[in-house]
Amino acid sequence: MLFHKLTGAYPEFTISRDKDLCINCEICVRQCSYGVHFQDTARGIVRHENSKCVGCQRCVTFCPTGALLIKNANSFFPQIGLIHNHFKQVEPCYLDKLYLDSCAFDTVVNDSFSPVQHTSESPILFSSKTSVPINLNLLTAMKMVSEKLGLDFDVAGRMHTKSIPAAHNVADSAVNAVKNGAEVLIIEGFQPGAGPFASVIPNEGMPIEFAVAVVDQRLKDEGLRNKVSVIADGKIRCSADVVKLVALGANVVCLGNVAMVAVGCTCCGQCSTGKCAWGIATTATVLRKRQNPEVAAEKMADLISAWNCEITQMLNVMGITFIRDLCGNKDKIRAVGLSDTEMSILGVRHTGQ
Prior knowledge:
Layout: E1 13-17, H1 27-31, E2 37-40, E3 45-48, H2 58-62, E4 68-72, H3 85-88, E5 98-100, E6 124-126, H4 136-149, E7 161-165, H5 170-179, E8 184-188, H6 208-221, E9 229-233, H7 239-248, E10 252-255, H8 257-262, H9 285-288, H10 293-318, E11 333-335, H11 340-346, E12 349-350
Parallel strand pairs: 6-10, 7-8, 8-9, 9-10, 11-12
Antiparallel strand pairs: 1-4, 2-3, 5-11
Helix pairs in contact: 4-10, 5-6, 7-10
């Protein structure tokens, strides 16, 4: 006799419940927004349905006795390994093949242009633009952190700001935007509508690092670089990515995905459902309460402060005092394993040169 529908016979995740540890407290039932756990009144125990599990780890985290374990059904590795999906979504990542030049300790300042300056020396902003439901408490937290650390916020909503996708005509779009009065260009390097941790649509658009490099060079060739600030938005994983993108030509980078990880996102890839059990990618009133804006702001502030410290250390190693002096200074990075064409587009040399 079938107890489950066949469509759920091959779930992506399997839940292991230790019967000796489970006390049937129903905390997992209340915490799961996907209806995975339920009270079996006939048997008087809490049970679960694997086919509904998205692997967000909310139930595992809140289980008071540690009775639950979620595994990837395909590999039987603990689900926590899916956090690496945040890195996999940008493969092939050319930033991993770019190395910072730490050999020369002289301060190199690019005097050919003076980019528009932001209110903060930090090259980091929060991205308030999203293609999925987002908890308004987190937007409040981002604003609080921005005010605390002196960061710009909601740049996309300002006048004379133009967002352009990292498509193959990105350089032409950037030049046209500046000629039409844009003072800030936001290069969007994420998949529109895909959600922050959804699977990558292969061969779509242009890698963000190439988009930033070609826009920077094209604006210089047109004599327009000193009239605009370039912001790289999307696919930022760590502080080293920030430094490399600035060297390729970005004045500032926007953080979105990483900020969500800082407040508890486990990268389950179900943002578009609006049922985020961690209260992140959702507008549901009950789930929104799971994110306290003050607590979230503190976590985000810690993240930004740590990254700023790491960025300062990297600049010191490269012999640079201010992050603005690195903007578009491609001599400060070297490539490993890239073709001559790729290095030519990026405007960088191979390591050892």
